[in-house]
Design brief:
Helix content is 88%, strand content 0%. It is mainly alpha-helical.
Length: 159
């Protein structure tokens, strides 16, 4: 239990750092990158706003995961992780991953049907597989958390 408490503070520092970097990407880097792409490649200028919207949405999904992780860390710190309250935050992570997966699937299909070489579709397929594994892993972790919460509630009722 002490090890978890020692990890919470540094993890929170890195979550804040990651969140800040993502806000920077969301507001400055991604829109600027796609505007630059539209200037340099006028043939793909029509993709500027859809690509900006999709990438900002994916960053938003990661920010939701960070916020939910922050709340779960608070529950760990207060020794309330095995309560019903923690399931809401895990659900938030699962839904954020699912939303990102659906949009990634759409991008994969669009790029896959319009690509001239297999490089980008293969990269997107790798990402799609990774996000699928992450989402299913979160579903399994949620089931384990629910089981542990039920066991703890039963034990506290007996004691």
């Amino acid at each position: 239990m002490i090890a978890e408490h020692r990890a919470v503070a540094p993890l929170r520092i890195f979550l804040v750092l990651l969140f800040g970097i993502l806000v920077l990407f969301q507001t400055m880097s991604l829109p600027g990158q796609f505007a630059h792409m539209a200037e340099k490649s006028p043939d793909f200028a029509y993709l500027r706003w859809p690509a900006t919207a999709v990438s900002v949405f994916w960053v938003l999904c990661v920010q939701v995961v960070i916020a939910c992780t922050w709340k779960l860390l608070t529950l760990v710190k207060n020794d309330r992780i095995f309560t019903e309250a923690s399931l809401r935050w895990v659900d938030g992570i699962v839904w954020a991953v699912a939303a990102a997966w659906v949009v990634l699937l759409g991008v994969f299909l669009y790029v896959g049907f319009n690509a001239n070489d297999p490089g980008l579709p293969l990269l997107l397929f790798l990402l799609l597989t990774g996000v699928t594994v992450l989402g299913l892993l979160m579903v399994v972790m949620r089931a384990l958390l629910r089981q542990a919460t039920t066991l703890r509630t039963d034990m506290e009722a007996v004691i």
